[in-house]
Amino acid sequence: MQGKKLFLDQEVARFRLSDRVPPHNLYRRLAELVDWSFLYDETRALYSHTGQPSLDPVVFFKLVLVGRLENLVSDRRLVEHCALRLDILFFLGYEVDEELPWHSTVSRTRQLFPASVFERLFDHVFAQCVAHGLVAGDTQAVDSAPVKANAALEAVLEKRPTGTPGPCLAGQHDPPAVPAASVITAPAHQLRQLATGQRRRQGAQTGALGARHEQARLLSNKTHYSPTDPDARISVKPGKARALNYLCSLAVDTAHGVISHAQADLADQRDSLHLPRLLTGLQRRLRANELPLRELLADAGYANGSNYARLEAAQITAWIPVFGQYKAEIAGFTYDAPTDAYTCAAGKALPFRKYDTRADGAWLKLYWATCSDCQQCPLKPTCVPGAKRKQLTRTIYDAAYRRAWERQHTRRGQRKRRVRQGTVEPVFGHFLHHYGLRRMNVRGLVGAHKTMLLTAVAYNLKKLLRHRPNRQVSVAVALPRPLLAANRRAGRQRRRTQAPTRPLAQPRTRK
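Structure for Transposase, as requested:
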């Protein structure tokens, strides 16, 4: 049965809690700013019509938001901190002598509510930011950052090949069920590349006199997993140690820095693979608030041919720098777009021949010349010394890559890069130092997504409370025409009398 907490605000020993919280207090203003009653309708289907009353859903969401606003990660410390603060007790609707919920109740309630309820709360706060004029919607900055998972890297286990049964315990006849995360699912060519790289790194670990040191433990997501949190992935950030992380992806509006989308992703994948899901959620939220999306700002990690094509199909200008390996021009060859063919320095044509795919599934376009043209060419010893003909390989999204490459080298492209850096990157600094996102206090990708949504809601609420609209009041007074002319004459006379007189020039004397 769904519980509903009633707050009577009764006097105890001539003490009223509402009188002790000033009107300018953060939590008092927050209680008056947001209408939290919609959470009852969102969570009613999750409860039975019988049984003991549960923790009030509104109290739960207020409590976990306080944890984000107070930079508290532990639920136990959160409850202890709230019991000492009168303003937080007033915000939660609890009397001074009333017991707060147990920390375990907060944890179980967080697992009970699906991620859709947290997304509904985020949408509700975002709509209020739009109503107050804090969101323009036309330009969004996108970025991601790793967040430490609630698991230790030292406890990871090695994955078993497909079809290998789990270990049998004493007295058991059938092997236990093997978790999906403990089975190797990587393709064979990736495993061979990983083994080759590990042997090369281990062979390079030698001492000054040739004596080998103790071999380091080389870990990879393709061969190891965390039994504590199977969704956590091993990743490394430049300048930091390798750890089990999740990826926090954000979209921030460039008008006032309001977060327009937040999601949790796996940390072992490139940012470009997470952009389609991020773009889908972002467009849905902006359409619901009747805001058009025209420009998307991101770093080179989101550079991908399919992403460029997807954004162009949606009529969104992608200010995403092209990845460093791409070259807009091939030295010694000129491209003709109408015929889709290249021409070499000797004047021979290399038309488009066929499509092909790489091992990772990426589609390619192949161009090559005829064998007779290359065999009789005087430039063959320097162009293709060991082959019969010259062949060029380009991505099928070469046209979209070229347009993005041209945009990033303009002055506007450099300005957009600075706008992105000043918009989305400071948000991650605030998340890390002021909103309790140093480390996850939950496990699983769904739990990480809920935590990141709550952090984004707390950040947007702070933006909403600090917003002060600029109101300009202008007063126009109509004067009669004769009085207006007299005022003008008096002003001119006053300026003449106050003008400084210049000294007369002295005549020059000849020496």
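The chain has 18 helices and 13 strands.
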